[in-house]
Amino acid sequence: MNEVILDCLGEACPVPLVKAQNKIAEMNIGDILIVQIDHSCAMKNLPEWARKDGHNVEVEEVDDGEWEVIIEKLK
Amino acid sequence: MAREKQVEHYDVVIIGGGPGGLSAAIYTGRARLKTILIEKALIGGLATYTNEIANYPGFPEEPKGEHITNLMKKQAQNMGVDFKLTAVKSVDLTGEEKIVETFRNKYIAKTVIIATGGRPRVTGGLNEENFLFDKGISFCATCDAAANTDKHVVVIGSGDAAIEEGMFLTKFASKVTVSVMHDEGIMDCNEIAKAAALSNPKMEFVWNSVVHGFEGEEHLERVILKNVKTDELIPVSCDNCFEFIGYIPNTELFEGQIKLTNRGYIPVNEKKETNIPGVFAVGDVTDKWLRQVATAVGDGAIAGTAAEKHIAEEEIFHEKIMQKDKVGMIYLYNAIDADSRAFLSEIETIENSFNKALVVNRVDIYKSTGIAEKLNVSTFPSIVITKDGKVAETIMDLSSDSIRNAINKLS
User: Fold this and answer.
1) In this predicted structure, what is the pLDDT of residue B1?
2) Domain total for chain B?
């Protein structure tokens, strides 16, 4: 099982979402994608999309205004 | 293949990051309990869905709900509370150690505070699931009203939320049709809202009606209402539909473990305790009369404090009161009762006469009967004699001789 880190720091919506969607399409079920973001809008739309798509999601605030969205691909 | 979950120990796990959970976190954090708050979406809960909160004391500027809950979060963080934004997958609350699992972690806690709130109730009409949220059925006028400028919308319900939100919608929409279950002129909302709604030229009412179903290609085009008296179907063409028919508590995770009301809410006592020791519940998820930010915050304060007391009592109970080294004598009394206080000198005499062979604990039950309940004692004063950390005898008829005899039997 792979763990992939996607650096989206400094990137505004919808770039992190689109990058994450493209990346997860290449990954296998059970793999983990960690998206690093610092735009709060991505904090909303990224987990929302991942949940709707049926993946496991966790958001970790690593620093003030900086988050990691951890997505486990489930299908 | 399942990944190995990381195990972490906490004094308090709070499930849900609305005002109730945040307030509990502030209290447990301040009591220096190791606390984590787990929220499945965004911190703030349902309060963040409202555009302005005008009745939360201390905020006369009518801020967004989010503004208030962000400040609560900051306050909890200052108290050292950890936050985790992910969904809880399962819980096992029945044991003395409470287990809360997310997809990457297994949390083991001494206490759990449930603050999971609720979500909008849906009508259950035909094809409803095809049009939820962005496809024509909304639950938040504040969020979606502007998108309905010059459109025709249908509102389901006649409670305060339905009528007040419906009135708000008339500022944008060209027409608001309200489906009301009751006879003409009867509504569930307050009288002021009712009078205003009935005289609003943009509002129309379909009395004695409920939702039968929803129709449309991609997006909602028609709501099919049904007359509850004649069963006649009434198609209403519209652009969007707003449902305001109440909320459902988020308690599915706890079914079979926590006692729930027949509507799924969690009944709690004055201390926000559920039927399981060490598990508390606060805010909208509980069976209560008024669901507001102000009442949720009060609940959180109570549960946070009660959790702290519970943990302290557990520690004292296991380490001190039920000690295994020697024969023990536990005196349970009410300090405001003069006779019970007077008997303390007799307790001291007995303690001294056994020299160091006896461990004596004096428990004042005036503030909390938690320890007495664990010992199954409900009349005071009483004495419990223990050996090897187990209850050997409970004495309710207190006399110096009967106490001495009970101790001598075990020594």
Assistant:
1) 47
2) 3
Tell whether B108 and B178 lie within a shared domain.
Answer: no
CATH code: domain of residue B364? 3.40.30.10
Token pair, residue B134, equals 């962005």
Residues B178 and B190 in one domain: yes
The 10s digit of each residue's pLDDT in B178-219 is 999 999 999 999 999 999 999 999 999 999 999 999 999 999
Q: Is B5 on the interface with A (CB under 8 A)?
A: no
Q: Which of residues 62-121 of B touch A (CB under 8 A)?
A: 83-87, 102-104
Q: What value does the mean pLDDT take over residues B148-163?
A: 94
Give the model confidence (pLDDT) of B96-140 as tens digits.
Answer: 999 999 989 999 999 999 999 998 889 999 999 889 877 899 887
Q: Give A7 to chain B, closest Cα distance, Å.
A: 20
Rounded CA-CA distance B256/B254 in Å is: 6
How many C-alpha atoms does B224 have within 13 Å on its Cβ side? 13
User: Residue B89 is part of which domain span?
Assistant: 6-118+247-316
Query: Who among A1, A44, A59 is closest to B86 (CB)?
Result: A59
CB atoms within 10 A of CB B335: 13
pLDDT per residue over B248-301, tens digit each? Answer: 999 999 999 999 999 899 999 999 999 999 999 999 999 998 888 999 999 999
Residue B398: CA atoms inside 13 Å, Cβ hemisphere, count? 20
Burial (CB < 10 A; 0-12, 13-18, 19+), residue A54, is: exposed
Q: Is residue B331 part of a domain?
A: yes
Say yes or no: B301 and B262 in one domain: yes
Positions of A annotated as catalytic residues are 13
Domain membership of residue B1 (yes or no) is: no
Task: Name the residue among A44, A56, A60 with its Cβ closest to that of B103.
Answer: A56
Phi-psi region of B256 (alpha: psi -120 to 50; beta: other; left: phi over 0): left
Chain A contact set for B87 (CB, 8 A) = 51, 56-57
What residues of chain B, 156 to 175, have a C-beta less than 8 Å from chain A? none
Q: What is the pLDDT of residue B51?
A: 61
Contact B3 A1 (CB under 8 A): yes
Considering the domain A3-72 in this protein, what is its CATH number? 3.30.110.40
Residues across chain A? 75
List C-alpha distances in Å: B17 to B12, B37, B47, B234, B405: 14, 7, 10, 41, 55
Task: Tell if the CB–CB gap between B86 and A58 is shorter than 8 Å.
Answer: yes
Closest CA–CA distance from residue B155 to any residue of chain A (Å)? 26
**Domain presence at residue B123:** no
Domain end call among B208, B243, B278: B243
pLDDT bucket at A1, cuts 50 / 70 / 90: confident
| B32 and B101 belong to one structural domain | yes
**What CATH number does the domain containing B262 carry?**
3.50.50.60
